């Protein structure tokens, strides 16, 4: 079965010149954990919520608080924090192939490309939900 069956269409994206505060807001508002970084429709990197946690300078977090300190935005750029040379799959890649890739790598999301342009994203959560529905 092709990955297009379980991928998220039209993913939220950022450009490398956007700031990390915007990224944090998108993670929170859309309840997502991965954002492809694009130049036009071409993927140039991937930013994860974990990437932001790694560079966060938050001294203390209230029990209900999830926002990062504003110093995050002034200290780092998306390009410095994002993963470059991202692995990607195509619309012809099967669910089984994606499961194999994600099970052997240390990342949890893959951009889905068609003619080298971003059309979707698939995550380990998408795979788990698919398996639970079977």
From TrEMBL:
The UniProt keyword set, sorted, is:
CBS domain
Q: Write down the PROSITE patterns for this protein, in alphabetical order.
A: CBS (PS51371)
Q: Read off the SUPFAM superfamilies from this record.
A: CBS-domain pair
InterPro entries noted in UniProt:
CBS_dom, CBS_dom_sf, Diverse_CBS-Domain
The CBS domain covers 7-63, 82-134
Q: Which organism is it from?
A: Tenacibaculum skagerrakense
Q: What is the protein's given name?
A: CBS domain protein
């Amino acid at each position: 079965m092709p990955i297009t069956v379980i991928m998220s269409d039209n993913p939220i994206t950022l450009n490398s010149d956007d700031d990390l505060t915007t990224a944090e807001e998108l993670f929170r508002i859309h309840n997502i954990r991965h954002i492809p970084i694009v130049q036009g429709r071409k993927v140039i990197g991937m930013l994860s919520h974990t990437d932001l946690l790694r560079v966060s300078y938050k001294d203390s977090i209230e029990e209900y608080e999830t926002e990062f300190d504003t110093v995050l935005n002034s200290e780092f750029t998306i390009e410095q924090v994002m993963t470059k040379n991202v692995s990607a799959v195509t619309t012809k890649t099967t669910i089984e192939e994606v499961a194999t890739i994600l099970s052997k790598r240390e990342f949890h999301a893959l951009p889905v490309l068609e003619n080298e342009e971003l059309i979707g994203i698939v995550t380990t959560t998408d795979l788990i939900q698919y398996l639970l529905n079977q």
